[in-house]
Automatic annotation (TrEMBL):
UniProt main location, coarse: membrane
Listed name of the protein: SulP family inorganic anion transporter
SUPFAM superfamilies on file: SpoIIaa-like
Organism: Methylobacillus methanolivorans
PROSITE patterns documented for this protein: STAS (PS50801)
Topological type in the membrane: Multi-pass membrane protein
Chain ranges of the STAS domain: 401-511
Domain of life: Bacteria
């Protein structure tokens, strides 16, 4: 305790972060078990992953307060591997996934996540909030006699809905009276006591499967260490590593914005990679940041590393010592906590952006949210970034323009403005009228920038058009890179070492 205080935590903060860790651990149990079933592995395989990944990333990662564990976005990818090749190949894939994530962090590539546009970030948050919210409805189903899932009905359904509503009311109203205990934790305890006191019949955590177990033991994946195994697991490891990093680093960005602080994406990538290597060696299914549990933790006041470490310790204690009591907790109480978290995670303010921001930004945000909801997180973010880049290129392409003047020598001067690149070439070429221009023409690039090789090819083509008309073309204020890469128009450039810009051009020929 004294060590924690020496690092900036006082007794009140220690209590707050410990209780937030307990609250998050309770909410983690049903989520982790559900994701384990999705991946076709045992509940303990998911719980061990959440214990190990949370502890390592919280203790050594780059974002205090962020919670990591066995995530649904990873579980859906694991399913095919487990079904086709068995759980041992999953453990091997998780180890390789971790190695790839460590290499990503060592290469210091985490900074590139900050290139994700805000509309994509907004769509990611809203999409995941909806995924988490709607996923809870699976708990309102039971297995029928023929093995199919059927919706609850009658008293069981009404009791569960009432308990969910009671949980949410307590979470919203309790902070108005006291903040001594996190409202989510108080709601779980009060609803559990009410169910036990009144003898209500309702689904409990134990209905999902037993969480009783011992300490995870070291276990090298039982797979052949050969090229054939690598061919099987590498595609899965690559996809898992990418999805895990995307979800983690976007969640890190979100926490940065909420706390007005700055996390360390490369450090977080290496910590997550190390956590997954360890998890695969201890029979865990691997994991990444979980936006839902992170929001529960932060809403309960868990802003320090201690909260994640406490969450891991409590979750392990549930497995070792308190499984009987945890299995008695009504699922409705945990569903209510997760409903509140999902509602708070969703950016309701995004609806106020309609009519106030460009329509392409609105489209990108909705697109990413829908793809996240109905398909895949990584695909959603990738498509969102691509669409945003194309929209940016299209809008930027329309900004290239030129004004014309006649200089003291009687030459017609095109004063170019904007960026000349692959998307603006058509507009660039349309600015010039070689057939109608006088015998001497100057193109001044002082207020323009030549970005790529496509722009250089367009400049060469322009020179060719004027040459075919028998007219003299001069080019001014081009950077040395531009001059070096021009072919047809190289001899037409007027060099002024004092005035010419020095920006580089994206082209492999200069490498």
């Amino acid at each position: 305790m004294s060590n924690a205080v020496s690092k900036g935590l006082n007794l009140s903060q220690i209590k707050t972060n410990a209780l937030s860790g307990l609250t998050t651990a309770l909410a983690m149990v049903p989520e982790t078990i559900a994701f384990a079933f999705v991946a076709h592995v045992s509940p303990l395989t998911g719980l061990y992953a959440s214990v190990i990944v949370s502890f390592i990333t919280s203790a050594f990662g780059g974002r205090p307060g962020m919670i990591s564990g066995a995530a649904g976005s990873l579980a859906v990818v694991m399913t095919a591997l487990v079904v086709q090749h068995g759980v041992e190949y999953l453990f091997a894939a998780v180890v390789l996934m971790g190695i790839l994530q460590v290499l990503f962090g060592v290469a210091r590539m985490g900074k590139y996540i900050r290139m994700v546009p805000y509309p994509v970030m907004l769509g990611f948050v809203n999409g995941l909030a909806m995924v988490i919210f709607f996923a809870q409805f699976n708990h309102f189903k039971v297995v029928a006699g023929d093995g199919s899932l059927q919706w609850l009905s009658g008293p069981l359904l009404y009791t569960m809905l009432g308990l969910v509503a009671l949980t949410m009311v307590i979470i919203y109203l309790l902070p108005r009276m006291t903040k001594v205990v996190p409202s989510a934790l108080a709601a779980i305890v009060l609803v559990s006591v009410a169910v036990a006191g009144f003898g209500l019949e309702t689904k409990t955590v134990g209905d999902l499967g037993s969480i009783a177990g011992g300490l995870p033991s070291f276990h090298i994946p039982s797979v052949p260490f050969d090229l054939e195994t690598l061919k099987i697991v590498f595609p899965y490891s690559l996809i898992l590593a990418a999805i895990g990093l995307i979800e983690t680093l976007l969640t890190l960005n979100l926490v940065d914005e909420m706390t007005n602080t700055r996390g360390q994406p490369n450090r977080e990538s290496m910590a997550q990679g190390a956590a997954n290597v360890a998890t695969g060696m201890f029979s865990g299914m691997g994991g990444c940041a979980m936006i839902g549990q992170t929001m529960i933790n932060m809403n309960a006041g868990g802003l320090h590393r201690l909260s994640g470490i406490a969450m891991s310790a409590f979750l392990l204690s549930f497995i070792l010592f308190a499984s009987h009591w945890i299995e008695m907790i009504p699922l409705a109480a945990l569903i209510g906590v997760i409903f509140v978290m999902a509602l708070k995670t969703f950016e309701w303010g995004s609806f106020r952006l309609f009519g106030k921001v460009p329509r392409p930004d609105i489209f990108v945000g909705i697109l990413v949210a829908l793809i996240t909801l109905f398909s895949d997180l990584a695909v959603a973010v990738l498509i969102g970034v691509i669409v945003s880049a194309l929209v940016f290129a299209w809008e930027h392409a329309k900004q290239v323009s030129a004004s014309t003047v006649v200089d003291e020598s009687g030459r017609k001067v095109y004063v170019l403005k904007g960026s000349v690149f692959f998307a603006s070439i058509a507009n660039f070429q349309a600015l010039f009228t070689p057939h109608d221009d006088p015998a001497q023409v100057v193109v001044d690039f002082a207020q323009a920038k030549v970005v790529d090789h496509s722009a250089l090819a367009a400049i060469d083509a322009l020179a060719e058009r004027y040459a075919q008309q028998g007219k003299q073309l001069s080019l001014k204020h081009l950077s040395p890179d531009c001059r070096a890469l021009l072919s047809q128009a190289k001899d037409l450039v007027e060099v002024n070492l004092l005035e010419d810009p020095t920006y580089p051009v994206a082209d492999d020929k200069l490498g």
